Structure formats: structure tokens, C-alpha cells
């Protein structure tokens, strides 16, 4: 008889504490065998990069700075 999850995998309990949360986040981000997780992580990193690039384009580093 198959498990209730459908994939035959045990469902992990939610992490308790910051160390367990960080451990599960690291495991989530570094699991090479899970396509959906990798897609989610890569889309998140892409969105963060787009956000940074769009928000840093307003800064002109060559402009003269205001004198106090």
C-alpha cells in the first residue's frame, strides 16, 4: 500500500528554532535532485537580481555630490 503523500516519501515536521530553519533552508536550496525546488530557487535568485539591477540604475556614481 502506498503512502499518503503519493511519492512514498515521509513528510518532515516543520522546523523548530532558527538552527533547524536554517538547516532546512540550506537543504532545500542545495537539493540537486528536485527539479521543482531548483526551479523555485533559481526564479527567486533571478527576481532578486532583477530587483537589485532595477533599483541600482538610479544611482549615478559620477554625479557631483552635494556640498553640505
From TrEMBL:
Output the PANTHER family linked to this UniProt entry.
Answer: MITOCHONDRIAL IMPORT RECEPTOR SUBUNIT TOM6 HOMOLOG
- Record's Pfam families? TOM6p
UniProt-recorded name of the protein: Mitochondrial import receptor subunit TOM6 homolog
Q: Which GO terms describe its cellular component?
A: mitochondrial outer membrane translocase complex
